[in-house]
Automatic annotation (TrEMBL), chains A, B:
GO terms for molecular function: potassium:proton antiporter activity; sodium:proton antiporter activity. This is Sodium/hydrogen exchanger. Belongs to the monovalent cation:proton antiporter 1 (CPA1) transporter (TC 2.A.36) family. Residues 513-527 have a biased composition (Basic and acidic residues). It comes from the Eukaryota. One of its GO terms (biological process) is regulation of intracellular pH. Residues 500-527 are annotated as: Disordered. It is found in: Membrane. InterPro entries: Cation/H_exchanger_CPA1, Cation/H_exchanger_TM, NaH_exchanger.
Amino acid sequence: MEQLQISPADSMGSPGKEQRAAGVGILLQIMMLVLSFVLGHVLRRHRIYYLPEASASLLIGLIVGGLANISNTENSIRSWFNFHEEFFFLFLLPPIIFQSGFSMQPKPFFSNFGAIVTFAIFGTFVASVVTGVLVYLGGVTYLMYKLPFVECLMFGALISATDPVTVLSIFQELGTDVNLYALVFGESVLNDAMAISLYRTMSLVRSNMSSGQNFLMIVVRFLETFVGSMSAGVGVGFTSALLFKYAGLDIDNLHNLECCLFVLFPYFSYMLAEGFGLSGIVSILFTGIVMKHYTFSNLSDNSQKFTAAFFHLISSLAETFVFIYMGFDIAMEKHSWSHMGFVFFSILFIGIARAANVFSCAYLVNLVRPSHRKIPMKHQKALWYSGLRGAMAFALALQSVHDLPEGHGQTIFTATTAIVVLTVLLIGGSTGTMLEALQVVGDGHDAPLGESFEANSGYRAPSYEGESSSGSRFKMKLKEFHKSTASFTALDRNYLTPFFTTQNGDDEDEHDELLGDSRRGVLRGHD
Amino acid sequence: MEQLQISPADSMGSPGKEQRAAGVGILLQIMMLVLSFVLGHVLRRHRIYYLPEASASLLIGLIVGGLANISNTENSIRSWFNFHEEFFFLFLLPPIIFQSGFSMQPKPFFSNFGAIVTFAIFGTFVASVVTGVLVYLGGVTYLMYKLPFVECLMFGALISATDPVTVLSIFQELGTDVNLYALVFGESVLNDAMAISLYRTMSLVRSNMSSGQNFLMIVVRFLETFVGSMSAGVGVGFTSALLFKYAGLDIDNLHNLECCLFVLFPYFSYMLAEGFGLSGIVSILFTGIVMKHYTFSNLSDNSQKFTAAFFHLISSLAETFVFIYMGFDIAMEKHSWSHMGFVFFSILFIGIARAANVFSCAYLVNLVRPSHRKIPMKHQKALWYSGLRGAMAFALALQSVHDLPEGHGQTIFTATTAIVVLTVLLIGGSTGTMLEALQVVGDGHDAPLGESFEANSGYRAPSYEGESSSGSRFKMKLKEFHKSTASFTALDRNYLTPFFTTQNGDDEDEHDELLGDSRRGVLRGHD
């Protein structure tokens, strides 16, 4: 029976005591949250980049979890700390992913859209398969614990989900090159969606193994999920844009109503996709992008400020909580440390797989890009390095404990846990040093984000003329794809923005005039 | 085992299907929320006061619940709608109660503090006992279902919790007299805390019946809970004020950190009290009052705007959700309608008990008030009428189903359900008409809230000289109490405000100067 089973009717016990335990459990969680925020603030203030906020939260969770493990905490309190995947997927993840989409700077993102999609979709697929095959081969050659092939692929899928939180906060702090930032950001967000779709597809394949579906069916099924979820998300986003355009809620005293409705839409999108058996994460991500791009400008000025701060607040709470929660759970769970070999080789293999992902995709992208826009080697190295694993991998691994037979799920879980802790602490801690070593820091400092982007934007027009001489059929295909993202910008400017936002209305007050002006300014920049 | 048991490990089933059911369940809830907000907006826009937002939400819940009951909804989806008291007490109630304290206008509230406390503490006690005794007598005389005496008192306590939501939204809309507004508001908020303390005390008495505690012990125990919770709440509030005064977070780029910490404090207070076995509601209410009065002014300008809007948003979502949830659950639960007599007589008795509460307390309050400040009869009638029952009574009744033996709990639950639905729909719908009939509408329209209050404030100084001739010993006692609330204002002005807020600093920017100015203006008004 699936339900939010708080205080089940049959556990009569003493309700007072139960409520007390809940109180103590939640109290501890709040205290850790406050501690993380304060510690994170202090660290940032003293510019200590080798212990970023996410690592600090993870460490706090680990330490408190360790203490709770040693001491004789009551089981009733302890149970408030178990990592429940459903809680994670239904309540913690949606705000984080939505905020990723919502806070995405549309210009660098869309101008790198082709590259991001290549890295996130094709690259993650490559990384999953490479990891899966290597782990399988490792098992066959008795190097490590032997898993069946489908389970190796499941492990490959879940471990390919990179985490945006830690790396990006450092990138932002140091003022990295906008294009590199957009690549890392876009890839790590979209590949969560890809990894979860892949994992679910593989899980389905595993349970339907006997019915003998062929490879084509799997691909169709995967595309169905991905495209379906994306359409649902975009659809909900556009619906919200139209609602706010025509409902006339942007007058003063309806501020609260406006915000309530705005806040409900992302969750609606997430649950709509989940209800149809699609991927809520993919859906809410695209809802975030669409709502920021269209719906947001239909809000009143006050509501714009409020909703932006609201989603930022909720997602930072959720993010910090996820890392604490993860640290705590890692310290509390039983792990099968007997397979240290598995852990060691997995780390090696995911490094190889990430290299296969990044360098092959960068090669493909560079094939179609004009020379001044090619992804330089140092950016590729930074991309390779920034692939630390976080909450998504952890949550999927925890789910695999339920999905797979005893030993397999447990091994995958232990390996994932170790990988998450190591990559968050080591990679997260050394990103600053790495960025400085690769000399990709400071570009953003010299020129503000907007300008430095403006400087190398507008590259598309020459790209089709200047480079089409070396055209193999494959390169043509890639360019077609690239062109389609360019024509999307035109579509957006000429049809979508006027249709979904209040830009075309002269019947609005001064505030809308201002908005219109700024938007026209943006358009002029494109011309 | 008490825990947030989502997707228990032993219910292996198909995780995809479970997640889908959760998705559909939550999707339905979001759709009802959106519908409620939109419907509420339309109703308010057309000034249809006989169907306020809370009634509309309740009706939506009832209708959808009824439909779900008729149709063959899957159990897994249905289970997402059960009203879980713990979910209500841990996640829905805290924001509502905090917002009550946080949005309280301190001036009318503190100038009516004596009256409010009399109504909420003494009055609720009277109402509980009267209801309990009448229900017991009704049982003894075979008028209605017979309950043991302690259970009658438990019923009396839970049914004495009046609901602020519906009535107050109408009061605000119509612009009622500020003093009446403060009375109704303060009473309905504080009596929730009182009712829950009484209910818990009675529940404790019931389970410890055999150990033969005397009446004194019960009183001590009750005071312990009430005073302890209040101190915890006030303590957390003051701590937060000091933190924000000295942490120096009110600079621009720490906006998000500031808000995160501010948002965590109320919940911290709630859980602290619950963890100590005290009443979280009482605690969070006082934290709300203290944080608004002291901490709030230590925030940066942006954060002030944001947090005010944030708590408003969260509490309106929670409020609307509670009414929908309640309506849905009422339509879904099995009720023992065999005891219609019990329902009928309880409604009669709570009317009598409320009269005993309001008129006796008003008499006491009027004894000490100067003639121009006495509570007029029409205000007393409005107070009597505005006592509709809402979510708190419902949640406590649901808890009583677990606390009491089968038949008793079920009877109390059915009666409470019927009373909630009837009072919300009938009283909520007719409050507008009643207020107009009693001619208490429009005072607020003639003069803005602030002014009309300013006009009859500052009444305390004369009150002690002008009226002390008729002094019986009892009246002196009451006046002493009244005086203590007046001296609290002096304490606040001279010590608390300078100590807990940034008012005394000249090192702050223009914004703080402004705040200081306005506060000095307020103080001058008091002199």
